[in-house]
């Protein structure tokens, strides 16, 4: 379990540090970037938020609050509180056209910065849990690596970066047509900012 938590944080940190991100969209307080490497498409959404970084961290690390701003989350329940910094959740997501609703079993690991210049981190990855086998009602999907890095800008503002390594199983509509769905990503980012502020 400790290894899983460590590798969860490490994978997100590694993704965030990659070079070669291409900016695809810029709004006043949202920027969307993509990174392609083989069959893996990674997404980065940067949001400027007028709340302190610790407040954003506390709100974004509790995934039960995510339905308030992310319409891709239908339900979210805690299956297991592994530690104060680690929880396993079961998430259901609405169906895309012609498909069953999706579900995920995810480990969410959160870390506060060790040094002032480091970000707050909330890392997400799929795990298997014997207690929750795949159900015929849902299409069990996998998150390779996703999460948030929250950088403090001042005592009352921060930059929230959302990352997701996208495979066709995670977001079929996104992988199929990134430009068409940038509007959906923008809308979700704006809802996230509104929720945090």
UniProtKB/TrEMBL annotation:
It comes from the Eukaryota. PROSITE patterns: START. GO terms for cellular component: cytoplasm. InterPro entries: START-like_dom_sf, START_lipid-bd_dom, START_lipid_transfer. GO terms for molecular function: lipid binding. Pfam families: START. Residues 16-166 form the START domain. Gene3D superfamilies: 3.30.530.20. This is ACO12 thioesterase. The lineage of its organism: Eukaryota, Metazoa, Chordata, Craniata, Vertebrata. The gene is Acot12_1.
């Amino acid at each position: 379990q400790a290894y899983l938590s460590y590798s969860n944080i490490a994978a997100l940190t590694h993704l965030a540090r990659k070079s070669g991100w291409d900016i695809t969209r810029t709004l006043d307080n949202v920027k969307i970037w993509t990174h392609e490497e083989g069959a893996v498409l990674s997404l980065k959404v940067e949001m400027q938020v007028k709340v302190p970084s610790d407040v954003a961290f506390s709100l974004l690390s509790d995934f039960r609050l995510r339905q308030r701003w992310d319409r891709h989350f239908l339900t979210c329940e805690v299956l297991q509180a592994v530690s104060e910094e680690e929880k396993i959740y079961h998430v259901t997501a609405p169906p895309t056209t012609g498909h069953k609703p999706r579900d995920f079993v995810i480990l969410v690991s959160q870390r506060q910065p060790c040094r002032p210049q480091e970000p707050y981190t909330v890392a997400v990855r799929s795990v298997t849990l014997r207690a929750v086998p795949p159900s015929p009602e849902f299409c069990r999907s996998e998150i390779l690596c996703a999460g948030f890095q929250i950088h403090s800008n001042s005592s009352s503002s921060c930059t929230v970066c959302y990352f997701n390594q996208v495979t066709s199983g995670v977001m079929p509509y996104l992988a199929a047509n990134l430009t068409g769905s940038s509007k959906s990503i923008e809308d979700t980012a704006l809802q996230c900012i509104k929720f945090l502020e």
